[in-house]
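Supplementary Methods. Inverse-folding protocol.

Structures were first reduced to a discrete structure-token string of length 286. This string, shown here, constituted the complete conditioning input.
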């Protein structure tokens, strides 16, 4: 974000251009600029890229989201270690709705203490933290017989390939770069501790092709009278709090009652139009 003094200056410092150039250079290119007083400035950059086929894009779109854990599994204990609250909260929001037992630590020393008392199945370990970093914490845990049974996944923002070798040599069982993909995280947990998941059904194609006019007609107040008011209230509440999994679950309940209404809500949810879902329901139920 820009500081108040920067806003008051009414002009930039050129930092954004420097950052942009570094991004382009990381992708193997560079930025060039040409400028003419009173006319304007043109920035150009070249990078090496490949064309993505339609099949690749379709495969990406067809990846299913995890919505629950399969029954008859252990109650997995997961420790999240990161000095930044937002990073911990991201993992908590992904894992908590599925039924994992979670604890958090803000540095390596806290992580070692919690691990010793709580014995988690898996630790998501940030590697760069104050007080005690992830390298030292991992080495302390893995130096014990009990620690050998605990899976530690290193989480780091480093883009250096050498970093992977360093964290693995510290005793980590695997390595993941920030920002990581949701599917990658769940796959890593399945690989190391055997967690099994229940996946959402593929997105209904009919929900994707509904026009805005059709959605408005299907979700008109009179049309929503066929849906129980308590279900609509719950859906509006979940939409307001951006609870993705709960919104999807409630839409499936709506769809079981009225398929067209469920498809219309799903079309909005697929575009993350949660505010619109809530406002349409509030109009309908008064």
């Amino acid at each position: 974000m820009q500081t108040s003094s920067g806003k008051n200056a009414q002009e930039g410092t050129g930092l954004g251009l420097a950052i942009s150039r570094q991004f382009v250079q990381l992708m193997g290119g560079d930025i060039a600029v040409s400028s003419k007083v009173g006319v304007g400035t043109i920035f150009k950059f070249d990078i090496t890229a490949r064309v993505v086929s339609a099949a690749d894009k379709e495969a990406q779109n067809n990846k299913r989201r995890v919505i629950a854990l399969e029954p008859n599994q252990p109650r997995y204990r997961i420790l999240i270690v990161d000095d930044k609250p937002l990073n911990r909260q991201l993992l908590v929001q992904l894992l908590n709705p599925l039924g994992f037992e979670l604890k958090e630590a803000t540095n390596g020393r806290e992580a070692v203490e919690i691990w010793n008392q709580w014995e988690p199945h898996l630790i998501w370990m940030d590697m760069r933290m104050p007080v005690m970093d992830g390298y030292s914490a991992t080495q302390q845990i893995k130096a014990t017989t009990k620690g050998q049974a605990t899976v530690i996944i290193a989480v780091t923002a480093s883009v250096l390939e050498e970093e992977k070798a360093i964290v693995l040599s510290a005793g980590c069982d695997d390595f993941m770069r920030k920002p990581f993909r949701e599917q990658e995280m769940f796959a890593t947990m399945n690989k190391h501790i055997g967690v099994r998941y229940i996946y959402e059904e593929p997105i209904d194609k009919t929900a994707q092709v509904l026009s805005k006019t059709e959605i408005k007609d299907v979700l008109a107040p009179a049309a929503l009278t066929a849906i129980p008011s308590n279900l609509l209230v719950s859906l509006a509440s979940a939409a307001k709090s951006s609870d993705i999994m709960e919104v999807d679950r409630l839409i499936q309940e709506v769809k079981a009652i009225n398929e067209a209404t469920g498809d219309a809500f799903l079309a909005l949810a697929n575009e993350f139009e949660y505010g619109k879902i809530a406002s349409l329901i509030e109009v309908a139920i008064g």
